[in-house]
Amino acid sequence: MTASRPGVTIIPIHGNTPRIHDSAFIAPGCTIIGNVEIGADSSIWYNCVLRADVSRIVIGERSNIQDGSVVHCDPERPGDPDGSPCIIGDDVLVGHMAMIHGCTIEDRGFVGLGAIAMNKAVIGSDAMLAAGAMLTEGKVMGARELWGGRPARLMRELDEAAIMGMRMGVAHYAENAKHHAAAVDGAFES
């Protein structure tokens, strides 16, 4: 399930080796460390870091983590035996340069460019964390909600057009990843 990927650094640590589905696209420049699981047809774009050295990171199917984003987690602590794993569902969009830390993003959630989601925060299904927003520790966004600001607060419910736009984004990234995978393979064969 995890094969060598051109230009990608995959690092086992503490007995955990990243598990990456064969159909997932991992762009050159990415570093994937430890207890990471990446599902079918997902894509991790250029220069992302996914570091699961103290807990775990799970990314579902057809999700994408865009260029320069960082995904991390936190270990168990006194009074918090579960720690803060980072759980990302299916069909999730994470925009460029996002910081995703020990949170949950439910299926079809969206994280805007440069946004931050902190430990134990939850981004509901079909919900959007706006570009540049900071979802602080433990905050829970309901389904189909748009939150923005620093700290992020509920702005409004998302309409059907916004939901369809997010779904089109997922489809675009799944298709575009296939083109980039072919281009990367060609570049490294030369």
Protein model, in words:
The protein has 190 residues and is α/β, with parallel strands linked by helices. The chain has a single domain, classed as UDP N-Acetylglucosamine Acyltransferase, domain 1. 16% of the residues lie in helices and 34% in strands. The strands form two sheets. Strands 1, 2, 4, 6, 8, 9, 11, 12, 14, 15, 17 and 18 form a twelve-stranded parallel β-sheet that branches. An eight-stranded mixed β-sheet has the order 3-5-7-10-13-16-19-20, with helices on one face. It is globular, with a radius of gyration of 16 Å.
Write the layout of secondary structure elements.
Layout: E1 9-11, E2 19-20, E3 25-26, E4 31-38, E5 43-44, E6 49-59, E7 64-65, E8 70-72, E9 86-88, E10 93-94, E11 99-101, E12 104-105, E13 110-111, E14 116-117, E15 122-123, E16 128-129, E17 134-135, E18 140-141, E19 145-148, E20 153-157, H1 160-189
Parallel strand pairs: 1-4, 2-4, 3-5, 4-6, 5-7, 6-8, 6-9, 7-10, 8-11, 9-12, 10-13, 11-14, 12-15, 13-16, 14-17, 15-18, 16-19
Antiparallel strand pairs: 19-20
Total discrete domains: 1
**Shape designation:** globular
Radius of gyration: 16 Å
Give the % helix.
10-25%
Tally the helices: 1
Given helix and strand content, the structural type is: alpha/beta
SSE string, helix = H, strand = E? EEEEEEEEEEEEEEEEEEEEH
**Low-confidence sequence ranges:** none
Task: Report the portion of residues in β strands.
Answer: 25-35%
Named CATH topology: UDP N-Acetylglucosamine Acyltransferase, domain 1
Q: CATH superfamily, please?
A: Hexapeptide repeat proteins
The CATH class, by name, is Mainly Beta
List how many beta strands DSSP finds: 20
